[in-house]
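pipeline/complex-builder :: batch 7 item 3
reading input block
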Amino acid sequence: MNTAIDFYFDFSSPYGYFASAKIDALAAKYGRTVAWRPILLGIVFKTTGGRPLPELPLKGEYVRSDFERSARFHGIPYRTPIAFPVGTMSAVRAFWWLQATDPAKAVALAKALYRAYFVDGANISDTGEVIKSAQGIGLGADEVAAGINDPAVKEKVKMEIASAIARNVFGSPYVIVDNEPFWGVDRFDQLERWLQGPF
Amino acid sequence: MNTAIDFYFDFSSPYGYFASAKIDALAAKYGRTVAWRPILLGIVFKTTGGRPLPELPLKGEYVRSDFERSARFHGIPYRTPIAFPVGTMSAVRAFWWLQATDPAKAVALAKALYRAYFVDGANISDTGEVIKSAQGIGLGADEVAAGINDPAVKEKVKMEIASAIARNVFGSPYVIVDNEPFWGVDRFDQLERWLQGPF
């Protein structure tokens, strides 16, 4: 029985962005599908005591350079955002609003948001930028704005993040396949081996 | 001009242990040598505010499982130590004592200590176990004990750790080649690419 791969990520996470460029092809290679699950690491960190990487002493300086080198290594376009990291509540709500009716288009929106933030320099913590990205894939500004403010969508986002925490998701990207967790795009080598068969 | 690769590690670090099984062959492939540099992450963490991975909420549980899966992935023998992590002051001192007169044998000692801790279940925070590992590669118990207690060796260890902190070493393994830092055995793919030529 092949089940979907759960792909947890934060829209402000460079490593999540790199993973987003690889996950679909990797899953397809092994006959799997991907359930894209954007979360808000800021809320997760309140439970886990985690802190954004760039704020950590020494490690912060290292990862900023590692983001850029990793982008070159993986051959993925990347520009360090001017505002980083940022809260992405509107982006996450827009995704889950759209996901309820059109999961494939929600994935397209996720990719557009990542591109806006990590390539085009847009600050996607701004709801206006989220709407622009949505318009770029053919959605209407009014429907997106209404979706972002829909109480049912807000509730769905809360539930998704609570569910992620309950599954021990503490970082981005975080992939769970057949209950096996893989943290980081640098575990995609082990993820691929696992998709060939548990080891 | 080919310079040595600086390989920083903590004797209580599983990822450092995995790296130790790979670093010499990787360096040799590109005509490089390796300067093995054991440090004490506990002292580094006092500067960086870092904490041992296993103590972190959620992450702690994940990494314990990741240690075992990574060992299988890399094909390296590994048993989770009963006492973990531990302080390894005697091990570090024994290494640097020996390194002053016989660098190659110091590397052999480092490998023996890692094997003792991560394969044979010895608690290498115990000076007696460090001496046993040293005896296993042909050293005398008395000379090793004297080396561990030599004030000059103690001073050398302090200097090494201060130098590592000054170079922003905040984890294990941490490799620096031509001033380019690589944190984690999961950056050995980027390290190898770098050894082929900066990118």
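note: The interface with chain A takes residues 47-50, 56-59, 61-62, 65-66, 69-70, 72-73, 168-171, 181, 183-184, 186-187, 189-190, 193, 199 of chain B (CB under 8 Å).
queue -> next item
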